[in-house]
Protein backbone atom coordinates (compact mmCIF):
# COMPACT_ATOMS: atom_id res chain seq x y z
CA UNK A 1 0.00 0.00 0.00
CA UNK A 2 1.41 3.37 -1.05
CA UNK A 3 1.95 6.01 1.61
CA UNK A 4 -0.31 9.08 1.28
CA UNK A 5 1.23 12.05 -0.49
CA UNK A 6 2.27 14.71 2.06
CA UNK A 7 0.41 18.04 1.80
CA UNK A 8 1.94 20.58 -0.56
CA UNK A 9 3.78 23.48 1.07
CA UNK A 10 3.18 25.35 -2.19
CA UNK A 11 6.07 27.78 -1.88
CA UNK A 12 5.99 28.54 -5.60
CA UNK A 13 3.59 28.54 -8.53
CA UNK A 14 5.43 25.62 -10.10
CA UNK A 15 5.22 23.60 -6.88
CA UNK A 16 1.49 24.26 -6.64
CA UNK A 17 0.90 23.30 -10.28
CA UNK A 18 2.87 20.08 -9.76
CA UNK A 19 0.87 19.24 -6.62
CA UNK A 20 -2.41 19.74 -8.49
CA UNK A 21 -1.16 17.64 -11.38
CA UNK A 22 -0.21 14.88 -8.94
CA UNK A 23 -3.87 14.58 -7.93
CA UNK A 24 -5.09 14.67 -11.52
CA UNK A 25 -5.79 18.37 -12.13
CA UNK A 26 -3.85 20.11 -14.90
CA UNK A 27 -3.83 23.86 -14.25
CA UNK A 28 -2.33 26.25 -16.76
CA UNK A 29 0.08 28.96 -15.62
CA UNK A 30 -2.52 31.70 -15.25
CA UNK A 31 -4.83 29.56 -13.13
CA UNK A 32 -1.96 28.27 -10.98
CA UNK A 33 -0.86 31.88 -10.42
CA UNK A 34 -4.37 32.93 -9.34
CA UNK A 35 -4.61 30.02 -6.88
CA UNK A 36 -1.11 30.65 -5.55
CA UNK A 37 -1.90 34.31 -4.87
CA UNK A 38 -5.19 33.41 -3.18
CA UNK A 39 -3.27 31.12 -0.82
CA UNK A 40 -0.47 33.58 -0.09
CA UNK A 41 -2.71 36.62 0.33
CA UNK A 42 -5.39 34.61 2.19
CA UNK A 43 -8.09 35.94 -0.10
CA UNK A 44 -11.14 34.15 -1.50
CA UNK A 45 -10.86 33.19 -5.17
CA UNK A 46 -13.85 33.70 -7.47
CA UNK A 47 -13.83 31.41 -10.50
CA UNK A 48 -16.19 32.17 -13.36
CA UNK A 49 -16.61 30.24 -16.56
CA UNK A 50 -18.86 28.00 -18.60
CA UNK A 51 -20.22 24.83 -16.97
CA UNK A 52 -17.80 21.94 -17.28
CA UNK A 53 -14.49 23.80 -17.41
CA UNK A 54 -13.25 22.41 -14.09
CA UNK A 55 -14.16 25.03 -11.47
CA UNK A 56 -15.55 22.62 -8.89
CA UNK A 57 -12.92 20.03 -9.74
CA UNK A 58 -10.21 22.57 -8.90
CA UNK A 59 -11.53 22.98 -5.36
CA UNK A 60 -11.61 19.21 -4.87
CA UNK A 61 -8.08 18.79 -6.20
CA UNK A 62 -6.73 21.74 -4.20
CA UNK A 63 -8.16 20.40 -0.94
CA UNK A 64 -6.48 17.08 -1.65
CA UNK A 65 -3.16 18.72 -2.56
CA UNK A 66 -3.17 20.89 0.57
CA UNK A 67 -4.34 18.14 2.90
CA UNK A 68 -7.36 20.20 3.96
CA UNK A 69 -10.91 19.12 4.67
CA UNK A 70 -13.23 20.01 1.79
CA UNK A 71 -16.50 21.67 2.82
CA UNK A 72 -19.03 22.37 0.08
CA UNK A 73 -21.84 24.90 0.18
CA UNK A 74 -24.08 24.31 -2.84
CA UNK A 75 -26.03 27.48 -3.57
CA UNK A 76 -29.58 27.63 -4.90
CA UNK A 77 -32.39 30.10 -5.42
CA UNK A 78 -33.98 31.18 -2.15
CA UNK A 79 -31.11 29.96 -0.01
CA UNK A 80 -31.25 31.17 3.59
CA UNK A 81 -28.52 32.00 6.09
CA UNK A 82 -29.39 29.05 8.33
CA UNK A 83 -28.63 26.66 5.47
CA UNK A 84 -25.16 28.13 5.07
CA UNK A 85 -24.10 29.13 8.58
CA UNK A 86 -25.98 27.47 11.44
CA UNK A 87 -29.30 26.77 13.06
CA UNK A 88 -30.23 25.92 16.61
CA UNK A 89 -31.06 22.36 17.60
CA UNK A 90 -34.56 23.24 18.76
CA UNK A 91 -35.44 19.71 19.86
CA UNK A 92 -32.41 19.51 22.17
CA UNK A 93 -33.09 23.00 23.50
CA UNK A 94 -36.70 22.08 24.28
CA UNK A 95 -35.64 18.93 26.11
CA UNK A 96 -33.21 20.99 28.18
CA UNK A 97 -35.93 23.49 29.08
CA UNK A 98 -38.33 20.76 30.14
CA UNK A 99 -35.68 18.96 32.18
CA UNK A 100 -34.75 22.12 34.11
CA UNK A 101 -38.18 23.71 34.32
CA UNK A 102 -38.74 25.12 37.79
CA UNK A 103 -35.12 24.70 38.84
CA UNK A 104 -33.67 27.78 37.15
CA UNK A 105 -34.83 31.27 36.33
CA UNK A 106 -36.06 32.11 32.84
CA UNK A 107 -32.99 34.24 32.10
CA UNK A 108 -30.64 31.48 33.27
CA UNK A 109 -32.43 28.91 31.15
CA UNK A 110 -32.21 31.19 28.13
CA UNK A 111 -28.45 31.50 28.57
CA UNK A 112 -28.10 27.75 28.96
CA UNK A 113 -29.94 26.80 25.77
CA UNK A 114 -28.01 29.28 23.63
CA UNK A 115 -24.70 27.53 24.02
CA UNK A 116 -22.38 26.28 21.24
CA UNK A 117 -23.31 22.67 21.99
CA UNK A 118 -26.82 23.35 20.69
CA UNK A 119 -25.60 24.71 17.36
CA UNK A 120 -26.10 22.70 14.19
CA UNK A 121 -23.08 23.86 12.21
CA UNK A 122 -23.37 24.38 8.46
CA UNK A 123 -20.42 24.73 6.02
CA UNK A 124 -19.55 28.39 6.71
CA UNK A 125 -19.33 27.88 10.46
CA UNK A 126 -17.56 24.54 10.06
CA UNK A 127 -14.93 26.25 7.91
CA UNK A 128 -14.33 28.99 10.48
CA UNK A 129 -13.98 26.52 13.35
CA UNK A 130 -11.84 23.94 11.54
CA UNK A 131 -8.58 23.22 13.41
CA UNK A 132 -5.12 23.14 11.79
CA UNK A 133 -4.40 22.89 8.92
CA UNK A 134 -7.81 24.43 8.25
CA UNK A 135 -10.54 23.71 5.74
CA UNK A 136 -11.17 24.50 2.10
CA UNK A 137 -14.65 25.94 1.63
CA UNK A 138 -16.23 25.67 -1.81
CA UNK A 139 -19.15 28.06 -2.30
CA UNK A 140 -20.44 26.46 -5.46
CA UNK A 141 -22.58 28.25 -8.07
CA UNK A 142 -22.96 31.37 -5.97
CA UNK A 143 -24.76 33.00 -8.92
CA UNK A 144 -27.74 30.72 -8.21
CA UNK A 145 -28.33 32.38 -4.84
CA UNK A 146 -30.07 35.75 -4.58
CA UNK A 147 -28.67 39.18 -3.72
CA UNK A 148 -29.59 39.13 0.01
CA UNK A 149 -27.51 35.98 0.39
CA UNK A 150 -24.58 37.70 -1.34
CA UNK A 151 -24.87 40.53 1.19
CA UNK A 152 -24.80 37.99 4.01
CA UNK A 153 -21.53 36.54 2.66
CA UNK A 154 -19.67 39.85 2.78
CA UNK A 155 -18.57 39.60 6.42
CA UNK A 156 -17.20 36.11 5.88
CA UNK A 157 -15.45 36.96 2.60
CA UNK A 158 -13.90 40.17 3.91
CA UNK A 159 -12.86 39.19 7.44
CA UNK A 160 -13.28 35.42 7.78
CA UNK A 161 -15.77 35.92 10.56
CA UNK A 162 -19.52 35.72 11.15
CA UNK A 163 -21.87 37.19 13.73
CA UNK A 164 -24.29 35.03 15.69
CA UNK A 165 -26.65 37.21 17.77
CA UNK A 166 -26.74 34.88 20.78
CA UNK A 167 -22.99 34.18 20.83
CA UNK A 168 -21.29 37.20 19.27
CA UNK A 169 -18.62 37.23 16.56
CA UNK A 170 -16.89 34.01 15.61
CA UNK A 171 -13.54 34.46 13.86
CA UNK A 172 -11.58 31.86 11.98
CA UNK A 173 -9.07 29.91 14.04
CA UNK A 174 -7.26 29.16 10.77
CA UNK A 175 -8.21 31.24 7.69
CA UNK A 176 -10.06 28.82 5.41
CA UNK A 177 -9.08 28.58 1.77
CA UNK A 178 -12.24 29.78 0.03
CA UNK A 179 -13.24 29.22 -3.59
CA UNK A 180 -16.43 30.60 -5.09
CA UNK A 181 -17.68 29.41 -8.47
CA UNK A 182 -20.12 31.05 -10.85
CA UNK A 183 -21.55 30.03 -14.21
CA UNK A 184 -22.61 33.66 -14.80
CA UNK A 185 -26.33 32.98 -14.90
CA UNK A 186 -26.45 36.51 -13.48
CA UNK A 187 -23.95 39.21 -12.60
CA UNK A 188 -22.60 39.11 -9.06
CA UNK A 189 -22.60 42.11 -6.77
CA UNK A 190 -19.49 44.31 -6.98
CA UNK A 191 -19.08 44.09 -3.19
CA UNK A 192 -18.59 40.32 -3.48
CA UNK A 193 -16.11 40.70 -6.32
CA UNK A 194 -14.04 43.31 -4.48
CA UNK A 195 -13.46 40.90 -1.62
CA UNK A 196 -12.15 38.16 -3.92
CA UNK A 197 -9.38 37.54 -6.35
CA UNK A 198 -10.86 36.77 -9.77
CA UNK A 199 -10.11 34.32 -12.54
CA UNK A 200 -12.02 33.47 -15.70
CA UNK A 201 -11.64 29.75 -16.33
CA UNK A 202 -11.97 28.83 -20.00
CA UNK A 203 -11.97 25.50 -21.80
CA UNK A 204 -8.45 24.07 -21.92
CA UNK A 205 -6.27 24.23 -24.98
CA UNK A 206 -5.85 21.01 -26.89
CA UNK A 207 -2.52 19.96 -25.37
CA UNK A 208 -3.75 20.44 -21.83
CA UNK A 209 -6.97 18.56 -22.51
CA UNK A 210 -4.97 15.76 -24.11
CA UNK A 211 -2.77 15.60 -21.01
CA UNK A 212 -5.90 15.32 -18.85
CA UNK A 213 -7.29 12.48 -20.97
CA UNK A 214 -3.99 10.60 -20.92
CA UNK A 215 -3.68 11.00 -17.14
CA UNK A 216 -7.26 10.04 -16.26
CA UNK A 217 -7.78 7.41 -18.96
CA UNK A 218 -4.33 5.80 -19.20
CA UNK A 219 -5.73 2.70 -20.88
CA UNK A 220 -6.80 4.73 -23.94
CA UNK A 221 -4.55 4.12 -26.98
CA UNK A 222 -2.33 7.10 -27.78
CA UNK A 223 -3.98 7.72 -31.15
CA UNK A 224 -7.49 7.51 -29.70
CA UNK A 225 -6.69 9.95 -26.87
CA UNK A 226 -5.29 12.41 -29.38
CA UNK A 227 -8.35 12.08 -31.62
CA UNK A 228 -10.74 12.54 -28.69
CA UNK A 229 -9.06 15.76 -27.56
CA UNK A 230 -8.88 17.12 -31.12
CA UNK A 231 -12.49 16.22 -31.93
CA UNK A 232 -13.92 17.83 -28.79
CA UNK A 233 -11.90 20.96 -29.51
CA UNK A 234 -13.59 21.11 -32.91
CA UNK A 235 -17.06 20.79 -31.36
CA UNK A 236 -16.32 23.84 -29.20
CA UNK A 237 -14.93 25.90 -32.07
CA UNK A 238 -16.68 27.83 -34.82
CA UNK A 239 -18.56 26.94 -36.95
CA UNK A 240 -19.58 23.72 -35.18
CA UNK A 241 -20.15 25.33 -31.77
CA UNK A 242 -23.13 27.30 -33.10
CA UNK A 243 -25.02 24.03 -33.56
CA UNK A 244 -25.11 23.26 -29.84
CA UNK A 245 -26.72 24.80 -26.78
CA UNK A 246 -23.79 23.81 -24.57
CA UNK A 247 -20.34 22.58 -25.50
CA UNK A 248 -18.94 19.42 -23.91
CA UNK A 249 -16.99 20.04 -20.70
CA UNK A 250 -13.75 18.44 -19.61
CA UNK A 251 -15.65 15.84 -17.57
CA UNK A 252 -17.57 14.81 -20.70
CA UNK A 253 -14.32 14.50 -22.67
CA UNK A 254 -12.87 12.15 -20.05
CA UNK A 255 -16.07 10.13 -19.76
CA UNK A 256 -16.29 9.81 -23.54
CA UNK A 257 -12.72 8.53 -23.69
CA UNK A 258 -13.56 5.91 -21.05
CA UNK A 259 -16.66 4.86 -22.98
CA UNK A 260 -14.68 4.51 -26.20
CA UNK A 261 -12.13 2.33 -24.43
CA UNK A 262 -14.98 0.17 -23.09
CA UNK A 263 -16.17 -0.24 -26.68
CA UNK A 264 -12.67 -1.32 -27.74
CA UNK A 265 -12.47 1.67 -30.08
CA UNK A 266 -9.06 2.20 -31.62
CA UNK A 267 -9.83 4.95 -34.14
CA UNK A 268 -12.72 7.44 -34.19
CA UNK A 269 -15.21 7.21 -37.02
CA UNK A 270 -18.54 8.98 -37.62
CA UNK A 271 -20.60 5.95 -36.62
CA UNK A 272 -19.11 5.56 -33.15
CA UNK A 273 -19.29 9.35 -32.63
CA UNK A 274 -23.03 9.40 -33.36
CA UNK A 275 -23.67 6.27 -31.27
CA UNK A 276 -21.97 7.80 -28.21
CA UNK A 277 -23.20 11.40 -28.58
CA UNK A 278 -25.23 11.07 -25.38
CA UNK A 279 -22.00 11.04 -23.38
CA UNK A 280 -20.75 14.29 -24.85
CA UNK A 281 -24.08 16.12 -24.66
CA UNK A 282 -26.91 16.14 -22.12
CA UNK A 283 -29.50 18.00 -24.16
CA UNK A 284 -31.74 16.17 -26.62
CA UNK A 285 -31.32 18.82 -29.31
CA UNK A 286 -27.54 18.75 -28.93
CA UNK A 287 -27.44 14.97 -29.28
CA UNK A 288 -29.59 15.22 -32.42
CA UNK A 289 -27.37 17.98 -33.82
CA UNK A 290 -24.34 15.70 -33.75
CA UNK A 291 -25.41 13.72 -36.80
CA UNK A 292 -23.22 11.74 -39.16
CA UNK A 293 -22.55 14.69 -41.48
CA UNK A 294 -21.39 16.94 -38.64
CA UNK A 295 -19.31 14.11 -37.18
CA UNK A 296 -17.54 13.65 -40.52
CA UNK A 297 -16.88 17.39 -40.86
CA UNK A 298 -15.51 17.70 -37.32
CA UNK A 299 -13.34 14.60 -37.73
CA UNK A 300 -11.90 15.92 -40.98
CA UNK A 301 -11.25 19.31 -39.43
CA UNK A 302 -9.54 17.76 -36.40
CA UNK A 303 -7.33 15.60 -38.64
CA UNK A 304 -6.46 18.62 -40.78
CA UNK A 305 -5.41 20.42 -37.61
CA UNK A 306 -2.93 17.64 -36.89
List SSEs in N-to-C order.
Answer: HHEHEHEHHEHEHEEEHEHHHHHHH
How many domains in all?
A: 3
Helical/strand content category: alpha/beta
* Name of the level-1 CATH class of the largest domain: Alpha Beta
What CATH calls the topology of the largest domain is Rossmann fold
Q: What is the arithmetic mean of pLDDT?
A: 90
Largest sheet: 5 strands, parallel
Spatial arrangement of strands, main beta sheet: 2-5-8-1-9
Number of helices: 16
**Unreliable stretches covering 5 or more consecutive residues:** none
Shape: elongated
Distance between the termini: 41 Å
Query: CATH superfamily name of the largest domain?
Result: P-loop containing nucleotide triphosphate hydrolases
Helical content stands at 40-55%
Tell me the β content: 5-15%
The total strand number stands at: 9
- Rounded Rg: 24 Å
**CATH architectural label of the largest domain:** 3-Layer(aba) Sandwich
Topology:
Blueprint: H1 13-22, H2 29-41, E1 45-48, H3 55-66, E2 69-74, H4 81-84, E3 86-88, H5 90-99, H6 106-113, E4 119-121, H7 123-129, E5 135-140, H8 147-159, E6 161-164, E7 168-171, E8 177-182, H9 190-194, E9 197-200, H10 206-216, H11 222-236, H12 250-262, H13 270-275, H14 277-280, H15 284-289, H16 292-305
Parallel strand pairs: 1-8, 1-9, 2-5, 5-8
Antiparallel strand pairs: 3-4, 6-7
Amino acid sequence: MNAPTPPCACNSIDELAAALQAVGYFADRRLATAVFLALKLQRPLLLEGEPGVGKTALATALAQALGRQLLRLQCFDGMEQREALYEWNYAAQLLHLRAHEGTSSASALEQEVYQPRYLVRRPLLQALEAPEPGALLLIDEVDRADEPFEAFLLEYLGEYQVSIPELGTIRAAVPPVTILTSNRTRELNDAVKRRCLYHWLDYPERERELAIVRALVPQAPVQLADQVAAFVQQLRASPHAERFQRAPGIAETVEWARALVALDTVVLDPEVVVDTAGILFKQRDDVAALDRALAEQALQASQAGD
